[in-house]
């Protein structure tokens, strides 16, 4: 903190305030010094990786042989696959501190015309979330922010920096390391959209760019050519469209939007980008036998849960250290990487092996799962952290969505010997869906109920017989 003096009404007022930090980072690639990046001092590996990605020098995380950042001396060293061009012609870009790029050509990427139209509501929702996250700007100003989200306006990644171009590099680098595909996403930014920003978005496959301020004429031209809708001045329920307004879908009038439950068109469709994971590592001590294999709904208990998740997700995994007991399930079985560490180890294993950037985790003994609630949670998933629902009893970590971005935090927690699921929450982003929202789908919160004892199981079977008797009675009446 620093003592500053604010002039107002003819006098100075003394105040303690934070000052935005400016950090020069000298970048060496394959032994060559190629640039000095003027940036904010946090998460510099994301900045470097994204800068190199947006220059076209790397495409995948595997293209890095080595990446090291020395904060003490302000030096970053990278060894990458392939060689840099013999001659690099830097272009000083318009931006805070002046940015640098080595090309302003429009990347040869097919325009994203096959993607569905993006609703105006999604643009406003993501911009509102950007404003909510931008705490640094509100505290002492001078910081730019940017975020990417999906077509529904759900935030995926967020970045802040003194340079607006750096925020996009940070997002590109974090997405690269976390395996998040940016194709088809929406970018919102607090800063002006100029040519280098538009070129980077085109290279990343971003489907729409929206700014709180303006766009330059060259950025408009580039977005026209790349097929990217470009929006400026997103404020107070209004915005200006500079390119491809035809790719925007109007939101229904206020009062006509029904948030919950999910529309019928969304029901029955499988949700991309999320893996369903069933955790079957419990000891079933109170039940006296493996509760996952108990008879239920004409099959085994776990089969009913698998069928339900298979209707929602393209990929379903089973985490078990006894895969031979579940040969009848048509899904991939994976074992704990940290055996003996409870449900947290199961979440870690499922997330590690999932093909998607996020996974919905559920215990194998929860018979009342609500598909609409699961779909709602999946649409809000954060690949960089945890999305967890609440009930009157508290957090429900065995009915939650976990992103691959929190794998490192889980690993650190497990290696420390801690087994409680919530013990890693302080090391990652955690978003909650409150009990009131959950109740809109499941007023009794039955979806979080599990079967632990024979009494629980017999009560469940009695309910199943009551449902069958009621159905048979209805058939007799109809006949």
UniProtKB/TrEMBL annotation:
Positions that bind GTP: 279-281, 291, 336, 365
Gene symbol of the encoding locus: fdhD
Protein name (record): Multifunctional fusion protein
Sequence similarity: Belongs to the FdhD family.
Cofactor: Mg(2+)
Swiss-Prot/TrEMBL catalytic activity: Mo-molybdopterin + GTP + H(+) = Mo-molybdopterin guanine dinucleotide + diphosphate
Domain notes for this protein: The N-terminal domain determines nucleotide recognition and specific binding, while the C-terminal domain determines the specific binding to the target protein.
Occurrences of domain MobA-like NTP transferase (ranges): 276-422
Protein's organism: Geobacter metallireducens (strain ATCC 53774 / DSM 7210 / GS-15)
């Amino acid at each position: 903190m620093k003592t500053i003096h604010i002039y107002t009404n003819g006098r100075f007022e003394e105040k303690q305030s934070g000052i935005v930090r400016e950090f020069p980072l000298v970048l060496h690639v394959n032994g060559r010094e190629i640039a000095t990046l003027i940036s904010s001092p946090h998460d510099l590996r994301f900045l470097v990786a994204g800068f190199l990605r947006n220059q076209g020098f790397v495409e995948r995380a595997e293209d890095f042989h080595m990446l090291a950042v020395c904060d003490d001396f302000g030096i970053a060293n990278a060894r990458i696959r392939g060689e840099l061009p013999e001659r690099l012609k830097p272009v000083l870009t318009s931006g805070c501190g002046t940015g640098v790029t080595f090309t302003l050509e429009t990347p040869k990427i097919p325009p994203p015309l096959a993607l569905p139209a993006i609703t105006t509501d999604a643009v406003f929702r993501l911009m509102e979330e950007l404003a909510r996250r931008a705490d640094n700007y509100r505290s002492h100003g001078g910081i730019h922010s940017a975020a990417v989200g999906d077509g529904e306006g759900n935030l995926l990644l967020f970045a802040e920096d003194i340079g607006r171009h750096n925020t996009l590099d940070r997002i590109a680098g974090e997405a690269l390391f976390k395996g998040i595909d940016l194709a088809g996403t929406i970018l919102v930014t607090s800063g002006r959209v100029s040519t280098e920003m538009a070129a980077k978005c085109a290279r990343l496959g971003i489907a729409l760019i929206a700014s709180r301020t303006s766009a330059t004429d060259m950025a408009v031209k580039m977005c026209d050519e790349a097929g990217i809708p470009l929006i400026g001045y997103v404020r107070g329920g209004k915005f200006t469209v500079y390119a491809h307004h035809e790719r925007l879908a109007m939101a229904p009038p206020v009062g006509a939007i029904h948030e919950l439950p999910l529309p019928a068109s969304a029901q029955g469709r499988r949700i991309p980008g999320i893996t369903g994971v069933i955790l079957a590592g419990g000891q079933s001590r109170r039940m006296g036998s493996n509760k996952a294999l108990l008879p239920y709904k004409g099959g085994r208990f776990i089969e009913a849960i698998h069928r339900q998740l298979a209707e929602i997700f393209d990929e379903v995994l089973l985490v078990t250290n006894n895969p031979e007991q579940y040969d009848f399930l048509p899904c991939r079985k994976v074992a704990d990487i940290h055996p003996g560490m409870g449900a947290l180890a199961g979440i870690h294993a499922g997330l590690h092996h999932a093909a998607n950037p996020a996974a919905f985790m559920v215990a194998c003994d929860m018979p009342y799962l609500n598909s609409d609630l699961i779909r709602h949670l999946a649409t809000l998933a954060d690949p960089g952290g945890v999305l967890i629902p609440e009930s009157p009893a508290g957090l429900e970590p065995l009915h939650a969505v976990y992103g691959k971005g929190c794998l490192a935090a889980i690993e650190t927690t497990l290696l420390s010997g801690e087994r409680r699921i919530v013990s890693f929450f302080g090391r990652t982003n955690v978003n909650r869906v409150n009990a009131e929202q959950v109740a809109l789908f499941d007023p009794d919160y039955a979806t979080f109920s599990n079967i632990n004892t024979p009494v629980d199981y017999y009560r469940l079977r009695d309910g199943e017989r009551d449902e069958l008797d009621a159905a048979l009675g209805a058939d007799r009446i109809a006949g």
